[in-house]
Amino acid sequence: MHLLQRGAKTILAMTQRTRRFITGESVILFLVVLDQWLKAFFRHSGTTRGGIFFISETPLENTGIAFSIPLPTHIALPLMGVVMIVLGVMLVRAVQRGAMHHTLALSLIVAGGASNMLDRIRWGAIIDIIHLPGGLVINLADSLIVFGILWWVILMRPLHTRS
Predict the structure, then answer these.
(1) What pLDDT score was predicted for residue 161?
(2) In the beta sheet, which residues pair with residue 60?
(3) CA-to-CA distance for 48 and 27, rounded, in angstroms?
(4) Cα(33)–Cα(30) distance, integer angstroms
(5) How far apart are CA 17 and CA 109, in angstroms?
(6) What's phi and psi for 130, nearest 5 deg?
(7) Is the predicted pLDDT of residue 107 greater than 80, yes or no?
(8) Is there a domain that residue 7 lies in?
(9) Which of 129, 100, 98 has its CA nearest to residue 115?
(10) How many domains in the chain?
(11) pLDDT (0 to 100) of residue 62
């Protein structure tokens, strides 16, 4: 009987873990869809009639890579593909280990990268619509990447031991 109880607890724990994973991944997928919709909306409308909050009046088409560093599409796309493959392998390993936080952090990075890569394929440039102080213009996918990297770096820091 003890073995059955332990097995039932394990199944219940896996079910809760799976539910949290699916919920987290669904939110991330929603953010990618929202990012693509916002980019398409503002790209096709051409203006937001004066801007909405921090959304730019006119979307910026970034033909470079991060921080608008110039790089032709025929080089940027394969480079992005290699990075996405490496991140995908890391993500699969995190899922296999059951490392929930690593999985979600890497998922944010992969989702943001995939959304920006889709821009590059669809429009030949990454569409940036969010103006930040200092002249920086980004999109929701960029935010996902930055947040995912920060989360992942924090997770990778060794825990401090008590003295």
Answers:
(1) 47
(2) 128
(3) 26
(4) 5
(5) 21
(6) -105, 115
(7) yes
(8) no
(9) 129
(10) 1
(11) 85
58 phi/psi in degrees, rounded to 5: -130, 130
Residues near 22 by beta carbon (within 8 Å), at least 6 away in sequence: none
Indicate whether this model's pTM tops 0.90: no
Spatial separation of the C-alpha atoms in residues 54 and 133, rounded to whole Å: 9
**Coil/strand/helix, residue 128:** strand
Domain containing 68: what range? 19-156
Burial class (CB within 10 angstroms; exposed 0-12, middle 13-18, buried 19+) of 97: exposed
What's the pLDDT at 99? 81
Residue 93 lies inside a defined structural domain of this protein: yes
State the Cα–Cα distance between residues 57 and 50, nearest whole angstrom. Answer: 5
Dig out the tokens for 85 from the structure.
Answer: 């493959």
H-type helices in the chain, by residue range?
A: 2-45, 73-97, 100-123, 140-156
Q: For 13-42, how does the pLDDT look when each residue is reduced to its tens digit (9 = 90+)?
A: 666 667 777 777 888 889 889 999 988 888
Sign of the alpha-carbon torsion through 9, 103, 117, 50: positive
